[in-house]
Specification:
about 475 residues; mainly alpha; 25 helices; flat; periplasm; Peptidase_M48; protease; Putative beta-barrel assembly-enhancing protease
Length: about 475
């Protein structure tokens, strides 16, 4: 039941957020209005934040700093070449072998790890991301809700709230969605298909402007349609993003309007794919090693480092350090500032109980890439393992201030505070993690306890009390949406 519920939610949310179509520039039909009568951008941001907190609490989100940095950089490259961008964008991954991606209020774009297992190139992955970005910039979810509001007496609050309720309480959410959608399923399906085509067209334009292969979109979608044409259970992506032949034909015709682009394989994409195969594909280590070994036998010199890196990760995760070290050392020698290699070697030195070697390596890399989040988070971890906790605290205070939604940063800060004996700060840092997951009561309990532990009248106590007030406002706003 839960799986079906999530598919329904994804279906509603994947027909995501919209701005009016720019027909003059993209030869698109005018679909609906700008959704100004439905939700404002500020309201969408509030709903997006609430939904993201629910996902953190209920879904297997991958909090991997290397993968997060890769998809964030790729996503922002696409956003920089998109039209009608009204919100910040945040990209994240869910550990799920099913092929899927979806976007929702507030510029959030989710990618299933299974996408990497089926996309053969960075352009194919970018085509899916560009499609989802278009759902956001064109405000398809808000426009869909506006269309529903025209046909039913339900309020916008009921329409939007039912989406959130469907996550917090699946059976009640299904009933709420059914009530607000009664008698309008066929027109809703047609509206969704229009949104999908519009997202394809805007997405292809984004791909072209960002320097990716525009043919990757019809190629990837066509391959999926062929592969699952007769499947009794198609992947989630085909349930939430229907692929009728006319949609594939339309995207292919659209791509043909752009000059062909010959791109070589992206090393970063294939390193990210290797990391997913090694760590997030839910397969045995022996199967992962076999996957990399079979590809190494094809003697592709360009991609050989990515397969060796994948092998090294498997050895690292199974504590075969003597096999992982020479591979990683050789890779780093040829590419000294590669974040994938530096992250893996940092862990290896820590496993070898030599964290100071990791600290030295990362300090050298940070002198050349001082603001890199992957290096910073690894550096802080290595400092904690080296018992240099006060320095780690200083670094992580700045890191969490600049990246307040990164749970890795808060967890490491809690660990560092715990090792320095600052129990109040340790509890407060953990409170931030509870808040990010929408567990408001636990977050408030943590900050109340931290305030009680702090010296009476101290700046720390004043800071904790101020945060309690903020959390109460955020909690009340969150609960009002349901």
């Amino acid at each position: 039941m839960l799986k079906k519920t999530r598919s329904l939610i994804a279906l509603v949310i994947a027909t995501s957020l919209s701005q009016p179509a720019i027909a003059n520039n993209n030869e698109l039909p005018d679909i609906g209005t700008a959704a100004a009568g439905t939700l404002t951008i500020d309201q969408e941001l509030i709903y997006g934040d609430a939904y993201m907190r629910m996902l953190r609490a209920s879904s297997p989100i991958i909090n991997d700093p290397v993968l997060n940095e890769y998809i964030t950089n790729l996503g922002h490259k696409l956003v920089a070449n998109s039209e009608d961008v009204k919100t910040p964008f945040r990209f994240f991954m869910i550990r799920d072998r099913n092929i899927n991606a979806f976007a929702f209020f507030g510029g959030y774009v989710a990618l299933h790890s299974g996408l990497f297992l089926h996309a053969s190139s960075e352009s194919e992955l970018a085509s899916v991301m560009a499609h989802e970005i278009a759902h956001v910039t064109q405000r398809h979810l808000a426009r869909s809700m506006e269309e529903q509001a025209r046909r039913t007496p339900a309020t916008i609050a009921a329409l939007a709230g039912s989406l959130l309720l469907a996550i917090a309480s699946p059976e009640a959410g299904i009933a709420a969605l059914a009530a607000t959608n009664a008698g309008s399923m066929q027109s809703q399906i047609n509206y969704t298909r229009s949104n999908e085509k519009e997202a394809d067209r805007f997405g292809i334009n984004t791909l072209a402007k960002a320097g990716f292969d525009v043919y990757a979109m019809p190629t990837f979608f066509g391959r999926l349609a062929d592969e699952y044409r007769y499947a009794s259970t198609p992947p989630a992506m085909l349930l939430t993003h229907p692929l009728p032949q006319d949609r594939i034909t339309d995207s292919r015709a659209r791509a043909q309007k752009y000059a062909p682009m010959k791109l070589g394989p992206s090393l970063e994409y294939h390193l990210a794919k290797a990391r997913i195969v090694a760590r997030y594909a839910n397969i045995e280590s022996s199967a992962s090693l076999d996957w990399f070994e079979r590809r190494l036998k094809k003697n592709n010199a360009t991609l050989e480092p990515t397969y060796k890196y994948g092998q090294a990760l498997v050895y690292l995760d199974t504590k075969k350090l003597e096999e992982a070290e020479p591979i990683l050392t050789a890779l780093l020698k040829k590419d000294a500032l590669n974040e994938f290699y530096l992250d893996a070697l940092s862990d290896l030195y820590i496993y070898q109980q030599n964290p100071k070697k990791s600290v030295q390596m990362l300090e050298n890399a940070l002198s050349k890439k001082p603001n890199n989040p992957v290096l910073i988070i690894n550096y802080a971890n290595a400092l904690i393992e080296s018992d240099d906790n006060q320095k780690a605290v200083s670094i992580l205070q700045k890191y969490t201030h600049e990246r307040p939604t990164d749970m890795n940063g808060w967890q490491l800060l809690a660990d560092a505070y715990g090792k320095t004996g600052k129990t109040d700060e340790n509890i407060a840092a953990l409170g931030e993690i509870f808040a990010l997951r929408g567990n408001w009561n636990k977050a408030l309990q943590n900050f109340t306890q931290a305030s009680q532990l702090a010296d009476l009248g101290s700046l720390e106590q004043a800071r904790f009390d101020a945060r309690i007030d903020q959390l109460m406002v955020e909690r009340d706003r969150f609960l009002s949406l349901q």
